[in-house]
Design a protein that fits this description.
The chain is an alpha+beta fold and 233 residues long. It has 7 helices and 9 strands.
């Protein structure tokens, strides 16, 4: 191949490339890689033969052929959450760093907390936490009027065998958390699922292991309901 004299001298210098154009090209490349990766995950999920295979298909692999780092690992497994999701402190941590961190609030007075919770833990203890700004709470007040969902939140064809009058119920919980003295970690203190005057306050100490896990899952469901409702406002 022959080049004419002066060919390379006529090319633009590196500093002449517009930074904005270069940034746009880079963003387009990244967008294409992500879109391609997400499309591949969707196809893999649809082809899965079982629920477990579908779950595994959601995430991209960190290694190709078992040892080559995958440059397109855009949906890695959330290893920390998967290893610690049953722990109370992980449950509490996600209220600050999860998908819906806008619900949690520092309690300024006990009037923000239900009487059942105050009675359960004692006014003196909770007041001390309020004074030191270590009492946090989440209250799903906007879900109180939606305790029964007659349309089941799904299209009727998806409710195979479910009677038309068999409503699906969910809760409007109140959750209280304690910030440790080092002010580094939250831990869940108790959960109230219902809003009656004599509603039970659940704690790890008063529940069996499976019951406590179920109670926390009810809170997670309500948090998802609230997150979706707010996102559509």
């Amino acid at each position: 191949m022959k080049f004419k004299a002066g060919t390379f001298h006529d090319l633009p210098k590196i500093h002449q490339f517009a930074p904005k154009k270069f940034a746009r090209l880079l963003l387009r490349k990244l967008h294409a890689d992500v879109s391609f990766g997400l499309l591949g995950r969707e196809r893999a999920v649809l082809k899965a033969g079982s629920a477990k295979e579908a779950f595994d298909a959601i995430y991209t692999k960190d290694k190709l052929l078992g040892f080559i780092p995958n440059p397109f690992n855009i949906l890695p497994r959330p290893a920390h959450v998967m290893d610690h999701w049953e722990e109370d402190k992980e449950f509490a941590r996600q209220f600050l760093t999860g998908t819906n961190p806008v619900m949690i609030t520092v309690a300024k007075d006990l009037g923000q907390i239900s009487d059942n919770i105050v009675k359960h833990f004692g006014k003196a203890k909770l007041q001390g936490l309020v004074k030191s700004k270590r009492l946090f709470f989440v209250s799903y007040d906007d879900l109180v009027d939606l305790q029964a969902n007659p349309h089941k939140a799904y299209p009727l064809p998806m409710n195979w065998g479910a009677p038309a009058d068999d409503d699906m119920h969910f809760y409007a919980p109140i959750v209280v958390f304690e910030l440790d003295e080092d002010r580094k970690e939250l831990d869940v203190m108790g959960i109230q699922l219902e809003r009656d005057r004599d509603s039970r306050v659940y704690t790890r100490e008063t529940c069996g292991e499976n019951e406590w896990l179920f109670i926390k899952s009810c809170v997670t469901t309500s948090d998802s309901q609230m997150h979706q409702w707010v996102s559509h406002l």
